[in-house]
């Protein structure tokens, strides 16, 4: 699979997965390839509020609309194997 195809699949999957939540500005952050496992690791960022944080709590913490990052792990056949949270504050 070409990198552009993998990125498009990851972005579309994140948009559908979080479609019920108020997210905006979905964009590519990083692309990595693990040839040993034949998978793509694609970091997608978006603005929004994760569902695990209450609206009031997010406003108090100053996190409403904060950039959120998810790593989408894709098999070469296009199957999404996992989506996990990524904290880039320490990078």
Description:
It is a single chain. It is globular, with a radius of gyration of 14 Å. It is 24% helix and 38% strand. It starts with a helix and ends in a 6-residue tail after the last strand. The protein is of the alpha+beta class.
What is the tally of helical segments? 2
Radius of gyration: 14 Å
| Side-by-side strand order of the widest sheet | 1-2-3-4
Shape verdict: globular
Which stretches are low in confidence, meaning pLDDT under 50 for 5 or more residues running? none
Sheet/helix structural class? alpha+beta
Report how far apart the termini are. Answer: 28 Å
**How helix-rich are the residues, as a percent range?**
10-25%
Number of DSSP strand runs: 4
Mean pLDDT: 84
Beta-strand portion reads 35-45%
Key phrases:
alpha+beta; 91 residues; 2 helices; four-stranded antiparallel sheet
Provide a concise account of the structure shown.
The protein is of the alpha+beta class. It contains two helices and four strands; from the N terminus they run αββαββ. It starts with a helix and ends in a 6-residue tail after the last strand.
Secondary-structure topology with pairs:
Blueprint: H1 3-17, E1 24-34, E2 39-47, H2 55-61, E3 67-75, E4 80-85
Antiparallel strand pairs: 1-2, 2-3, 3-4
């Amino acid at each position: 699979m070409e990198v552009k195809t993998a990125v498009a699949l990851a972005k579309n999957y994140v948009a559908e997965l979080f479609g019920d939540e108020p997210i905006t500005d979905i964009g590519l952050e990083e692309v990595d390839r693990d040839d040993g496992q034949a998978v793509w690791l694609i970091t997608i960022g978006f603005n929004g509020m994760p569902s695990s944080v209450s609206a009031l709590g997010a406003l108090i913490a100053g996190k409403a609309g904060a950039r959120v990052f998810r790593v989408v792990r894709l098999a070469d056949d296009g199957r999404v194997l996992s989506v996990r949270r990524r904290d880039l504050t320490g990078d």
